[in-house]
């Protein structure tokens, strides 16, 4: 606003003359409210080009750009890369090629560093996170090795809170003391040695107890003074010896566990309902009438499957082409089992029928099953190849072909093979040796497969000779 009497002129933005025509400074930082309205030492000869100077320092996006000294991968890591390269020994020679024939020419100091020093240098260049990860992996591998190569895995598989192996006892029939009725030769000793070793390794692997019973001829088992059947007596003795066990598995001497990687729990007992059949009409080579129809029987005795509860099954066995087979069977500790063993052992039954029962206790059990309803209620049957596969010569039709119900099948990896009846015109040792080697071949580890399926084959093609590695 102008005072009266004063000519109206435009107010200057500064008290000093502006170098820009029309008044004002070209400085972008001019602020009317600031204490200073112009630079302290502003030149008066021409305008100050601050705007252009500012634009030179701005990037294309309008933000200030700045350059670092470590741009690029090689710039940042050049020192580390160069320090890791080999350093050649340059000799102090006057001529450029004067040391060409010297023996030490071309060597670098890293060649003389010992192995421990190299390892230490490698670990020294590792980061802290990588060292921690390697330590965790090493501790994990060490724990795995200790667990599987120490008694820890055996204790775990045997404990009730672990695998539960202490609930199972394997009863193996043997003749440790030598032959009595006939001379025991080298083949008989070899059969017994292989069979016992096979059962012992299997029992140790899964934490089971192994009871080797001596089936030698004793006075109470001799014909003139015989009390009853050996198998029944030994099963009762094993139940007294192992009071905490639940299942007892009888195996004849001429049997071989083909798949030691199968535990009894995984193979059979964890899914018993789908493996057991209680109605003998599913496979009935003896043509036994089932179920019984007596009017005084209760509902479970009149039923073909008993009470239908798999936990009430106290005896498991298989049937071959001739009927019951006791080369491999299971019995559970129970009051019913004690009662059955007492009746089965009864000397009266032996004295009456021992001349007619060709298969001894096997025929006696068939008679008990056929005539007593309480025996049927708690007896279950397994498919024969589940626990008791036969070689092709047993239950064969003379053609040598496998019967899918009885005979061992390598493609389905049957659990146990029983050389039943091999002492009657067959070679027991030959069959035992065959299945022993075949079991080893089926259960080789990756290293053994590499040696035998690759290295040995290459060696045979080169030399024409088989070598066992």
TrEMBL record:
GO terms for biological process: cell budding; cell wall mannoprotein biosynthetic process; division septum assembly; protein N-linked glycosylation. Gene3D superfamilies: Spore Coat Polysaccharide Biosynthesis Protein SpsA, Chain A. Residues 30-44 have a biased composition (Polar residues). Keywords: Glycosyltransferase, Membrane, Transferase, Transmembrane, Transmembrane helix. Residues 94-104 have a biased composition (Basic and acidic residues). The keyword rRNA-binding does not apply. GO terms for molecular function: alpha-1,6-mannosyltransferase activity. Pfam families: Glyco_transf_34. The chain crosses the membrane at residues 130-148. One of its GO terms (cellular component) is mannan polymerase complex. InterPro entries: Glyco_trans_34, Nucleotide-diphossugar_trans. Residues 1-48, 85-110 are annotated as: Disordered. Belongs to the glycosyltransferase 34 family. This is Alpha-1,6-mannosyltransferase subunit.
């Amino acid at each position: 606003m102008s005072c009266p009497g004063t000519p109206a002129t435009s107010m200057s933005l500064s008290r000093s003359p502006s170098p820009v025509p029309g008044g004002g400074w070209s400085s972008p930082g001019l602020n009317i409210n600031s204490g200073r309205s112009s630079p302290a030492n502003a030149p008066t000869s021409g305008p100050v080009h601050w705007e252009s100077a500012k634009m030179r320092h701005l990037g294309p996006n309008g933000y200030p750009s700045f350059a670092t000294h470590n741009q690029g991968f090689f710039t940042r890591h050049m020192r580390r890369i160069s320090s890791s390269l080999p350093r050649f020994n340059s000799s102090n020679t006057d001529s450029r090629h004067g040391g060409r024939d010297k023996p030490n020419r071309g060597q670098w100091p890293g060649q003389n560093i010992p192995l421990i020093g190299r390892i230490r240098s490698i670990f020294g260049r590792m980061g802290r996170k990588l060292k921690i990860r390697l330590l965790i992996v090493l501790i994990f591998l060490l724990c795995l090795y200790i667990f599987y190569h120490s008694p820890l895995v055996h204790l775990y598989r045997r404990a009730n809170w672990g695998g539960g192996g202490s609930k199972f006892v394997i009863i193996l029939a043997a003749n440790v003391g030598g032959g009595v009725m006939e001379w025991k030769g080298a083949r008989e000793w070899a059969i017994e040695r292989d069979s016992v070793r096979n059962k012992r390794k299997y029992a140790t692997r899964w934490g089971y107890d192994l009871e080797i019973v001596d089936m030698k001829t004793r006075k109470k088992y001799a014909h003139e003074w015989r009390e009853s059947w050996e198998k029944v007596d030994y099963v009762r003795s094993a139940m007294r010896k192992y009071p905490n066990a639940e299942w007892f598995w009888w195996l004849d001497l001429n049997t071989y566990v083909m798949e030691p990687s199968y535990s009894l729990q995984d193979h059979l007992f964890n899914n018993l309902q789908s493996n057991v059949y209680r109605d003998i009409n599913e496979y009935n080579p003896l043509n036994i009438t089932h179920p019984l129809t007596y009017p005084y029987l209760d509902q479970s005795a009149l039923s073909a499957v008993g009470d239908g509860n798999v936990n009430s099954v106290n005896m498991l066995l298989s049937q071959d082409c001739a009927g019951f087979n006791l080369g491999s069977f299971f019995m559970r500790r129970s009051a019913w089992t004690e009662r059955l063993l007492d009746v089965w052992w009864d000397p009266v039954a032996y004295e009456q029928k021992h001349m007619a029962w060709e298969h001894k206790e096997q025929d006696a059990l068939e008679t008990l099953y056929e005539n007593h309803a309480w025996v049927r209620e708690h007896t279950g049957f397994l498919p024969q190849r589940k626990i008791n596969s036969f070689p092709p010569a047993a239950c064969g039709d003379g053609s040598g072909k496998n019967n899918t119900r009885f005979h061992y099948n390598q493609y389905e990896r049957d659990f146990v093979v029983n050389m039943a009846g091999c002492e009657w015109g067959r070679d027991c040792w030959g069959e035992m040796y065959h299945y022993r080697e075949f079991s080893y071949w089926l259960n080789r580890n990756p290293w053994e497969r590499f040696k035998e399926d690759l290295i040995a084959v290459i060696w045979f093609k080169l030399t024409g000779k088989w070598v066992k590695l």
